[in-house]
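Anyone up for a design puzzle?
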């Protein structure tokens, strides 16, 4: 047993002496998480929240009609109070300056003829062309600006639906002579305003998890950071599998077997080295992310158990790749393909809506571990992630059995 541990620790030291490997194992996940955090708006405030809350926005309403007022009321409504933080309107130039200085996520400019262009003409049933509603966006807050744009687009879509209703209903009455033009225009305006004042387009149901009775604030980085750590874990285990094959090609394993150390001990030590490297990599990323980004990982007993389980399952995949390949180049190619494919189908980069892709993602350690980390981050405990841990250990057992068969075939 001492020899197995000694070989494992020796391989762990060799990996951490390789600067190129360290760049991809540790630095790359940190930098990508940092970049994605900026792009997603996770660093937009100092509260540790995801940035998708209290979005600063200014609305300049130049419209003399009712629809412009309806849009302003929507932005100031209680239903969007947790999502938006409307800023008192000033001048157009001052509003754009605030956006340029990244003080505002966006400036919404409602043109003077906004309501007028929404009311269909009594003769043609068509709406008049007018000045477009403008959204002046901050490039530094792409997600927040997109939220504001979505709210505006949904408001306009709802009004457009009302326009169609007005056109069909009131034009029919007008053609039959039952409504004069004045009544038509008044009724059209009333219907469109009612359409704009209908049920809220967007409502927010904010819920918080709890740990020991304390509320846990959602942090978007708590999804990005473990996702990147697990994504690059596949690179690490592939690198370890490649070292096994390289030593076999170079004859190092044969020379070691000529000593008092048996082949089983050598291979076990190499596998232990891959596993320890994976645990160290994810562990360092978890601790570093907690210190650098302020991520609350939750129950640390559950976190440690998930790290160990994820590293074990990933090691199984690394051994299967090493057992199936004949050259180190094949391992590099297969390992890279697996790393990218696992990242895509496990929900590492984006939420997967397709149930078939979600089902396929169950073959990846990424999906099970990421779901477990998300549970812990939202305040759940070790008991809640036991199904995820069990799935990872089952995956590891199956993959280790497959790897044993593949390695025996190589020896034969």
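Challenge accepted. My sequence:
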């Amino acid at each position: 047993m001492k020899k197995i541990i000694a070989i494992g620790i020796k391989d762990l030291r060799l990996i951490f002496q390789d600067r190129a490997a360290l760049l991809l194992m540790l630095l790359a996940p940190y930098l990508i998480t940092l970049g994605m955090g900026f792009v997603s708006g996770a660093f937009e405030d100092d509260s540790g929240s995801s940035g998708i809350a209290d979005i600063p926005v200014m609305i300049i309403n130049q419209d003399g009609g009712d629809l412009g007022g309806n849009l302003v009321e929507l932005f100031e409504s209680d239903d969007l109070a947790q999502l938006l933080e409307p800023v008192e309107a000033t001048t157009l130039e001052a509003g754009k300056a605030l956006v340029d200085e990244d003080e505002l996520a966006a400036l919404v400019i409602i043109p003077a003829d906004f309501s007028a262009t929404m009311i269909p003409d009594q003769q043609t049933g068509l709406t008049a062309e007018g000045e477009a509603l403008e959204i002046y966006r901050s490039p530094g807050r792409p997600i927040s600006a997109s939220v504001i744009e979505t709210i505006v687009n949904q408001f306009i879509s709802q009004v457009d639906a009302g326009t169609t209703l007005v056109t069909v209903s009131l034009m029919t009455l007008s053609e039959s002579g039952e409504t004069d033009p004045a009544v038509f225009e008044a009724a059209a305006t009333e219907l469109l305003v009612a359409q704009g004042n209908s049920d809220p387009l967007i409502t927010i149901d904010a819920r918080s998890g709890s740990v020991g009775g304390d509320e846990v604030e959602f942090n978007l980085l708590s999804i990005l950071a473990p996702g990147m750590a697990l994504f690059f874990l596949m690179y690490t285990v592939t690198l370890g599998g490649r070292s096994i094959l390289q030593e076999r090609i170079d004859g190092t394993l044969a020379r070691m077997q000529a000593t008092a150390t048996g082949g089983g001990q050598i291979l076990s030590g190499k596998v232990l080295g891959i596993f320890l490297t994976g645990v160290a990599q994810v562990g360092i990323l978890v601790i570093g992310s907690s210190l650098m980004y302020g991520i609350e990982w939750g129950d640390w007993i559950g976190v440690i158990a998930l790290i160990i389980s994820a590293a074990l399952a990933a090691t199984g995949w690394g051994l299967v790749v090493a057992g199936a390949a004949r050259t180190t180049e094949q391992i590099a190619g297969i390992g890279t393909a697996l790393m990218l494919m696992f990242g895509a189908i496990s929900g590492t980069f984006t939420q997967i809506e397709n149930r078939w892709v979600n089902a396929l993602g169950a073959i990846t350690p990424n999906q099970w571990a990421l779901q477990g980390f998300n549970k812990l981050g939202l305040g759940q405990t070790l008991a809640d992630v036991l199904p995820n841990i069990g799935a990872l250990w089952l995956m590891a057992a199956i993959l280790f059995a497959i790897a044993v068969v593949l390695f025996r075939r190589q020896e034969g």
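A detail worth pointing out: Residues 236 and 278 are 6 Å apart (CA to CA).
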